Amino acid sequence: MLVMRILVVEDDDRVARGLVTALRSASFDVQRVATAERALGAPPADVVLLDLGLPDADGIDLLRRLRDRPQTAIIAVTARGEERDRVRGLRAGADDYVVKPFGVAELLARIDAVLRRTRAARAGAVDEEPRLRVGALTVDPGSRAARAGGAELQLTRKEFDLLSLLASRSPSVVARDQILDQVWGTAWEASSRTLDTHVGSLRAKLGHTVRIRTVRGVGYVLDGS
Ligand code: CA
């Protein structure tokens, strides 16, 4: 299998050490740099994990310059509470973002997702929202239709969003926080029981075609087998 290269741009040594160790254990080829200058001089990577708070440059400017390399996916890393940076980062072309402090499982799931997208783009596979297939399930984000074992599923808007998110990350686990953030939005602060309720109704509609498995203390994963 092709080894994916990850460039970690992070000035905090302690954070960087943890990241490098975790990513190497996940079999990535990892290089770490602490400054924007070195980031620009580094060999091309498949994914850049970019801390937007660097000492020698504006993180957003650096993001734009790295963005010029079409084969590289960029995950912006922002500090908690820096909502503005996150929005600027996505506008400047980041493929995704994580907020410090983040867990390894969440980071790996996001890396997995951006790699999948860039691979699909490289293969010339498609338009922006490719049809997702997990086992007997097909999800078409374009027409917002989902079929399980050939039969069209009657889903509510949130059920569709939830299923589509899980399908896009399968077989990776999607963290509860991430689901709440992406399906219900950042303003959503009610009890996460809503999520459990939606998972319950989705499970009932999916029947035995695919399985939404609970990963205790982490989140959910869609199993196609
Ligand atoms: Ca920093």
How would you describe this structure to a colleague?
This protein folds into two domains: 5-122, 3-Layer(aba) Sandwich (Rossmann fold), CATH 3.40.50; 126-223, Arc Repressor Mutant, subunit A (Orthogonal Bundle). The protein has 225 residues and is α/β, with parallel strands linked by helices. Helices cover 41% and strands 23% of the residues. The longest helix has 19 residues, at 104-122. The strands form three sheets. A five-stranded parallel beta sheet has the order 2-1-3-4-5, with helices on both faces. Strands 6-7-8-9 form a four-stranded antiparallel beta sheet, with helices on one face. The chain has a three-stranded antiparallel beta sheet with strand order 10-12-11, with helices on both faces. Helix 6 crosses helix 7 (176-184) and helix 6 packs across helix 8. Residues 11-12, 51, 53-54 line the site of calcium ion.
DSSP strand content: 15-25%
Ligand species: calcium ion
Helix-strand category: alpha/beta
Q: CATH superfamily membership of the largest domain, which one?
A: Response regulator
Q: Strand order within the widest sheet?
A: 2-1-3-4-5
Overall shape: it is: elongated
Major sheet characteristics:
5 strands, parallel
Number of strands: 12
The top-level CATH class of the largest domain is Alpha Beta
- CATH architectural designation of the largest domain: 3-Layer(aba) Sandwich
Average pLDDT works out at 86
Task: Tell me the radius of gyration.
Answer: 18 Å
The sequence of SSEs as H and E is EHEHEHEHEHEEEEHEHHEE
CATH topology of the largest domain: Rossmann fold
Helix tally equals 8
Report the span from N to C terminus.
22 Å
The portion of residues assigned to helices is: 40-55%
In total, the number of domains comes to 2
